Automatic annotation (TrEMBL):
Domain Mechanosensitive ion channel MscS C-terminal: 331-397
Any one GO MF annotation of this record: mechanosensitive monoatomic ion channel activity
Protein name: Mechanosensing system component YbdG
Annotated TM spans: 20-45, 66-83, 95-119, 140-160, 166-183
Topology in the lipid bilayer: Multi-pass membrane protein
Mechanosensitive ion channel MscS domain location: 185-253
Native organism: Aliarcobacter butzleri L355
Superkingdom as given in the UniProt entry: Bacteria
Family to which the UniProt record says this protein belongs: Belongs to the MscS (TC 1.A.23) family.
An annotated GO BP: cellular response to osmotic stress
Length: 402
């Protein structure tokens, strides 16, 4: 074919010099590549998209998703250039070597990208069918991509240097210490990824708290090297993947899955306001619906106990009596158990903590019936609004500095 073209040039009066012939051949190669590009991207690709819009079958979706068809088309264009070069360009020409190297590098790069697209599509299909945790698969995907990326890099270097890939690998073996240093995070990340996925420690969407790295929010991406966390102030924190294995962190996902979020807050009571309840106090508090059953039961119990021991009740220290703080505790427990937004299947407790210089902490310990942050804060605030408002009914004062 090349001879016929040279004879044609002579017939039309053009001297087939080296430069003239080379530029014509290069023009043919470039023109062919452009035509192939137009056919693949403007005609065939549009046809595939049109078919996909009508049928949505697996084959067309696979070709379009992750740009697989576009990348395969670019690989084909590289093959066309490589094939055309061997036909038109003289092997002793410098242009031949340039085009051959360029086309092989082109084919290698877009072949690797096509492989990446196939891997992504394959694992996505597997994930949808088997419901395998995405993080476990993502670590494998990234590891496969890394391995084949390194292989492709070595092959490209061997093409440029005109040496065997084996020779390049032997040279890299001598630099193993340097490579270990360069890929330290990747190796550690891969090892950590296997441990995290095997032990199901975290997954995308989990709320984690890791003060060492300033992370307090939801995981949005788990990679081979880093984990990205969107904090509640909308900032993004990146954490080395291996840090989730080597360091401690708090995963709040269990709280979300349980359906309840803990309230654990204390009201500081002024010790000087604690006292026994008088008969007038008891009569007044009996009017409270939530306290009436408790007071009736407790008064009967105390009366029987005191009578059985024949105590002289004119002395306050003798016998058993109702206290305002004890009655407050009983009221708060009943109040929480009857609260519509408190989870009744989880612990509900009101307890005294050790007194300190700020008074006696009366701790509320319970779980809301929701894990939504805004709702949780509203419920907690409503409960403590109520507590502070009813303290005076029991003759109790909250501690206030000064």
């Amino acid at each position: 074919m090349k001879k016929y073209l040279i004879e044609f040039l002579k017939d039309i009066g053009i001297e087939p010099t080296f430069i003239t012939v080379s530029f014509i051949f290069i023009g043919i190669i470039v023109l062919t590549a452009i035509v192939v590009h137009i056919i693949l991207h403007k005609i065939i690709l549009k046809s595939i998209k049109k078919v996909d819009r009508k049928r949505h079958n697996f084959i067309t979706q696979s070709l379009l998703e992750y740009n697989l068809f576009q990348r395969l088309a670019l690989v084909f264009q590289g093959l066309v250039v490589y094939w055309q070069t061997s036909i038109w360009v003289d092997k002793q020409s410098v242009f031949y070597e340039i085009f051959q190297i360029f086309s092989l590098i082109w084919i290698s790069i877009f072949g690797l990208l096509s492989f990446y697209s196939i891997v992504d599509k394959s694992f996505k299909t597997l994930h949808n069918k088997t419901k395998t945790p995405f993080f476990a698969m993502q670590s494998v995907i990234q590891s496969i991509k890394l391995i084949f990326g390194i292989i492709c890099f070595i092959y490209v270097i061997s093409i440029v240097m005109d040496k065997s890939p084996v020779a390049i690998l032997s040279g890299l073996g001598a630099m193993s210490a340097v490579l270990m240093l360069v890929f330290k995070d990747t190796i550690l990340g891969f090892s950590a990824g296997l441990q995290l996925s095997t032990n199901k420690m975290v997954q995308v969407g989990d709320w984690i708290e890791m003060p060492k790295y300033g992370a307090d929010g939801d995981i949005i991406d788990i990679g081979l090297n880093v984990v990205k966390v969107r904090n509640f102030d909308k900032t993004i924190t990146t954490i080395p993947t291996y840090a989730l294995v080597s360091d401690s962190f708090k995963n709040w996902q269990g709280m979300r899955e349980s359906g309840g979020r803990r309230i654990k807050r204390a009201v500081l009571i002024d010790i000087n306001s604690i006292s026994f309840l008088s008969d007038e106090d008891i009569k007044r508090l009996e009017k409270a619906n939530l306290l009436m059953p408790y007071l009736h039961t407790k008064q009967s119990e105390i009366k029987n106990y005191n009578e059985s021991h024949n105590f002289d009740l004119s002395v306050a220290m003798n016998g058993r009596r109702l206290t305002n703080i004890g009655t407050l505790r009983a009221y708060l427990v009943t109040y929480l158990k009857n609260h519509p937004n408190i989870n009744k299947d989880m612990t509900i407790m009101v307890r005294q903590l050790a007194p300190n210089e700020y008074g006696i902490p009366l701790e509320i310990y319970c779980f809301t019936a929701t894990t939504v942050w805004i709702d949780y804060e509203n419920i907690q605030s409503d409960i403590f609004d109520h507590i502070y408002s009813i303290l005076k009914e029991f003759g109790i004062k909250p501690y206030q500095y000064g």
